[in-house]
Amino acid sequence: MKKTYLLLLSVFLFSFNLADAQNKEWSIVKGKITSPWAEKVNPANPLPEYPRPQMVRDNWQNLNGLWSYAIAPRAQQDNMPSAFAGKILVPYPIESALSGVGKTVGKDSVLWYKKTVSIPSKLRKQRVLLHFGAVDWLCDVYVNGNKVGTHQGGYDPFSFDITSALKRGNNQDVAIRVWDPSDDGPQPRGKQVKKPESIWYTPVTGIWQTVWLEGVPQTYIASTRQTPDIDQQTVSVTAQVANRQANDKLRILAWDGKTKVAEKVVNAGDEAVLQVKNPKLWAPGSPNLYDLRVAVVRNGKVLDEVDSYFAMRKISVAPDADGVLRMMLNNKFVFQYGPLDQGWWPDGLYTAPTTEALLFDIEKTKEMGFNMIRKHVKVEPAIWYAHCDKLGMLVWQDMPSGDLGNRWESRPGVTGRGTEKDRTPESESIFRQEWKEIMDDLYNFPSIVVWVPFNEAWGQFKTVEMTKWTMEHDPTRLVNSASGGNFHPVGHIIDLHNYPDPTMPRPDIFGSKQAIVLGEFGGLGLPVTGHTWQQKDNWGYQTFKNADELFERYKAFTERLERLINEGLSAAVYTQTSDVEIETNGLITYDRKVIKVPAEKLKEVHEKLYNSNLVDMKATTAR
């Protein structure tokens, strides 16, 4: 008993001393407001949660924490610095306060990371994959001095098999070199600019999502793809299996809670179609999810298996009694209404301080009575989408914009004023590659119902071609070709932006062949003293002195929306969830410490928008 006590005491003291040492190596950069979760960040174990809820294994290791960093001239980018400047807390971008650095890198420099990683024998007994949730933008990875791979793209997860680069023993040296030109390059970068102002924000460079290791067998499941069909009461499942052999099988099982609802065995590489009788449909208010297990089997032995989930959900368009196309969820009209969600944090920029913080905005959005979120020119960690799946929150997913410069005409039906961006072959290739990766990586999240390739003509190019390609690549979702941008008769949706008052395009635009939505409106500003990014010169589309005045104006907006729904409006997006830097248009302050209008007041006025009696729908088969 005494030996056990002494052992536990020594473990505790070691952990305490380690955390104390790491706290001395890191502290948050002072000078800006912070969220309530900043003080909960543990430098010894930041963002410790398993990062991939759609494909779960238990043999993994989180590499978040303190790494060494250095900023070096890009001209010397092939040479690892002989000395490093200090410690950076991964996965917070270097410009952020939570990184402990708070420095800008820029197009003429590269950012280096370095860490000695101890890989336990449990991982070493298998093939070892090194995963990155997201790194902005061009990333080279080295293990023990050997280059194991290069990745281009700031918003999609990627991994490298590093098994052959490992040396004897547990300790392995990992180094990462990152270059990000921000708005000096043509790559997707959302709202990042080197000189932040107005609706444009601080740059984000380097690692900004979880870094982790995973052990997998020689033959393993690299990815899965789940496609529900509620009309046929089936779900189709495919899996990409690395190093599979000719007679390998794929075994798929589905459960509703503890009740097994389907099981199928097919040849690895084939599609498995599972019957889901009398399916429980997924929707806001009833976010039913089915558990899924996919296994690779050889000669009766399970080589690898992953746990996942799926939902029986359908998104489509169909005409109402007046022939106006409506957005349909599970073959019924559901008015979709939610905020424009930028996903920025005062302390972590692109990276929420903790997972609790990451999920806070979704939960508050639901409490306010919204049923949809438009994720604006940014992609979130997989955990964010999984939470939307669990809560029943519809998501419109934007492609992060980049390579701006073309002219914008925001009025539908007006031709000859807007222009399309004449992108270079390199710029076009970068866009196509990353958009494809984003759609593929997020495919299994049922909450995502709309893809938005372009916003307000920001880098908009080859609209007809890119929209048709997007529709063909994922025919299970709607495509909003140009949210508020230069309009073309292509895609499922035509989307007007108007500030501050709600309005909508004419239902007969382009021959009534698209659903009508209001992709952005509102922007009612209220700076809250002590909770702003800067003390003065903050900005809003229309600024109010107090929350009561703001709410009365907002309430009038919702009354106007009720009339627009009857006239053909299928969805609307209010700007916005939270303040961001000098923007004070949020329903919540940037530090998330003040909700400007009580959630229950917002929910009361929102519930009227979902009244099924607003629209007399004709019984029809969704297109």
Main sheet strand line-up: 30-28-27-26-25-36-33-32
* Rounded mean pLDDT score: 92
Strand content: 25-35%
Q: Tell me the radius of gyration.
A: 25 Å
Structural class, judged by helices and strands?
Answer: alpha/beta
What is the total domain count? 3
Report the CATH superfamily of the largest domain.
Glycosidases
Tally of individual helices? 8
CATH-derived topology of the largest domain: TIM Barrel
Tell me roughly what share of residues is in helical segments: 10-25%
How would you describe this protein?
Mean pLDDT is 92; it is low at 1-18 and 617-623. Strand 25, helix 3 and strand 26 form a beta-alpha-beta unit. The protein is of the alpha/beta class and 623 residues long. The strands form ten sheets. The chain has an eight-stranded parallel beta sheet, covered by helices on one side.
How are the elements arranged and paired?
Blueprint: H1 2-25, E1 60-62, E2 65-73, E3 86-90, E4 109-118, H2 121-124, E5 127-132, E6 135-136, E7 138-143, E8 146-152, E9 158-161, E10 171-179, E11 206-207, E12 211-216, E13 220-229, E14 234-242, E15 249-256, E16 259-267, E17 272-275, E18 282-283, E19 286-287, E20 290-298, E21 301-310, E22 315-319, E23 325-329, E24 332-333, E25 336-341, H3 355-367, E26 372-375, H4 382-391, E27 394-398, H5 425-442, E28 448-452, E29 454-455, H6 463-473, E30 478-479, E31 482-483, E32 493-497, E33 515-522, E34 524-525, E35 542-543, H7 547-567, E36 569-575, H8 599-607
Parallel strand pairs: 25-26, 25-36, 26-27, 27-28, 28-30, 29-31, 32-33, 33-36, 34-35
Antiparallel strand pairs: 1-12, 2-3, 2-4, 4-10, 5-9, 5-12, 6-11, 7-8, 7-10, 13-14, 14-17, 15-16, 15-20, 18-19, 20-21, 22-23, 23-24
Helix pairs in contact: 3-4
